[in-house]
Structure formats: C-alpha cells, structure tokens
Amino acid sequence: MLKILGRKTSSNVMKVLWLCDELSIAYDREDVGGPFGKNDQADYLSKNPNGLVPTISDDGFELWESNAIVRYLAAKHGAGSSIWPDDPQTRASADRWMEWLSTTVGPNMVLIFRNLVRETDETRNMDEVALGIKNCTRWFGVLDELLAKNDYVTGSDFTVGDIPLGVHTRRWVELCPDQAGEMKNVLAWFERLKARPAYHHCLIPLE
Amino acid sequence: MIKIWGRPSSLNSIKVLWCLDELRLDYELELWGLGHSSLDDPAYLQLNPNQMVPTIADKGFILWESHAIVRYLAAKYGFDALYPADLQVRANADKWMEWMVQNIKYRLRAIFHDRYRPGSPDGGKKAAAKGLEEIGQWWDILNIHLSGSNFVAGDNFTMGDIPLGCAVYRYREMISERPEMPHLDAWYDRLAARPAYQRHVMQPLA
Hints:
By secondary structure, chain A is α+β, with helices and mostly antiparallel strands. In chain A, 54% of the residues lie in helices and 8% in strands. Chain A folds into two domains: 2-77, 3-Layer(aba) Sandwich (Glutaredoxin); 88-199, Glutathione S-transferase Yfyf (Class Pi), Chain A, domain 2, CATH 1.20.1050.10. Chain A has helices at 11-22, 42-47, 66-77, 88-118, 126-146, 162-175, 177-180, 184-194, and strands at residues 2-5, 27-30, 55-58, 61-64.
C-alpha cells in the first residue's frame, strides 16, 4: 500500500491526495509536519533530507517533491486516463501548468497565505500580503484568459495540470474574494473542480 | 528544426539550449528578452502571455516553462537516456528538477540580481545576503546525495542534472568562498567535461 507522510492541511500534500483519489490509488497517510512535528527527526530526514512534506513510500521506493510525486503516480497508475495524457504535446501542456504554478502563483500565494492564515496580528506583514495580491492578480488574470476558451487548463479534459493550480485557487478565492470575484472564467473552472469528489481534500478549513 | 525564443544570458534559456545540444537537435535561436526584443511585444505575447523566456516551437507546437520544455524534449527525443524509461529513476531525476526550483532558484536569483540586475524588484542586498546565508546548506543536501552517485539520478546523466547544473555554475562563478562540498565539486567536474555544458553553461555571467 502506498504510504503518504504529511499533514492533510499542506497544499503540497493535498496535490498528492487529490491525484490518488482521482486514479483510485489506495493509500495510508500519516500526519507529519506542522503541529505534528516528526519532520525534523532522524527517521524522517533519512527519507527526505529537506524535512518537508509530503514524502511517499511506494513498496519501499521513497520519493519527495509533490509535483514529482504526482507525475510518478500518474505515470504508474494513469495510463489510459485523460488525467495523464498519452499524447506528448497534451502531456507537456499539462506539465507546463504544473510548472507555471511554481514559478508564478505559488511564491506569491505563500506571501498571502502565510501572513493571513498562519501569522498573528503581531507578526503579520501586510506589505508582503499586498505584494502577493498584486502579483497573484496578474497571474490569475493570465489563467482567466486561458479559461475563457477551455474547460480545463489543457482543453476539454481534467489533467494533472489542473491539480497544483486547483489547490491554490481555493485559497485565492477564499482569501482574496474581491480580486478573485472579477475572474469569471477562473470561478467557473473552480466550480468544475468542486464538482469532482476527489477535490474535497482541497476544501478543508485553511490552517 | 526546433525554434527557441530566448537569450543565452537567461538561466532558463540556458537549460533548454543545453538540453537541445545534449539531444543533438538542430535549433534556431531568436533573441528575445533583456537586451533584445521586448517581451511585451504583441508578437511575443501571443506565444507566451507571461512575458518570460524561453518559449519553443516544435513543428508548430508552442511550449513555455523551461522545465516542462526540458521534460518534453527529453521524453520525445531522449527516451531511455535523458528521460529514463524506468519510472523510479525518472521520478528521481524529476524530483531534483523540482528541488532546484523550490530551494535553490530564488536564493541564487537574489544573489545574481543584486550583482547583475541593479534596480530589479527582488529585494536587493537584504535578500541577496539571506540567500547567500542559506544556500550553502541546501547545496550540501545535494552534496551528500552525490556521495552515492555520479549524477543526481544515478550512474548516468539525465534531465535531472540540467537545472542544477546550470545553477551550480552560476553559484561557483559568483561565490568564491564556499563550504567544502567535495561530491558537488566532483559532479560539477563531470558536467564541465561535457561539450554541451561548456558551450551553453560555462559562459560569462551577464
């Protein structure tokens, strides 16, 4: 049985849980990280020297970096599913949207999320939040234009390309409703994601 | 022939140029971005709405995001070599590409921009100092990993070595006082012996 190490409140763990449910991959999850700790202990560091979550163990094969985990599990279990496209160009397009999240929305959503959800009134940095919102508005605007013509990021089918973006879009809609409210196509795509049972991992309370 | 829009001074363009050369693919480079044609030109925006380089075209298929480009080219033209056929080896190569983006890239960029891009909105001296303070311990994670293999995913050079190979050259060029990392140095020496690395990566920083 696939073992997933990581707390379910982590955006990176959510990607993996979502993908597993989409492809009906059975797994066992253990809480690690955040208030649960263990990620700074020797046992965990021997599996993942970065001390971050998630890490998976697949019949003894250990892997970290959530996007690499998603692509590995999709390649292993997703043959024939539109989630892991067969066609090299569609697959590259899905891959591109996973990367795009890491380079554009991701670093800016962290500024918003960390400050508004995890910091206290004393430690919150509202300049960081403002910068994060400014940049996310630009990047989600790019996504909004794309989604005017497509139901999902690569076209008519849900793929792995929708997963990292889908995790962070819930945060965008909830934490920045004024800006997100202007993006009709992103909101329509968000409704499509919410209709997928596997997406429930991304809808738990933010913490 | 693959077409690439980018510039040889861009780390992300270098990853793709190096990859194209390792795969012995013919390509045409059109110079765009800093110092060349501007990325907010409508002709470029219709290819890549993000105003970033590189972008490629492969027989009309347009793709951007340098790591997605490297994985696409490797899968299509370097299957079972640059792109391992074994899913676990491939995942190991993939994870080090991700690791570069998550842990090395922004720290290195802060140092680089402070020196070579004055006025860029990257936090200036403070971000550069923080990046420099932290980056050594991250490189050491790779250093320790490389005590067990020649390249990041095992005995053979793969796509996993490309982003980090670009980053390590830049790091060494900018920072002469570095922590002792003998396995990282040995891996760097292996990369430096590759003609494609010499041609595209080992160039003056600008």
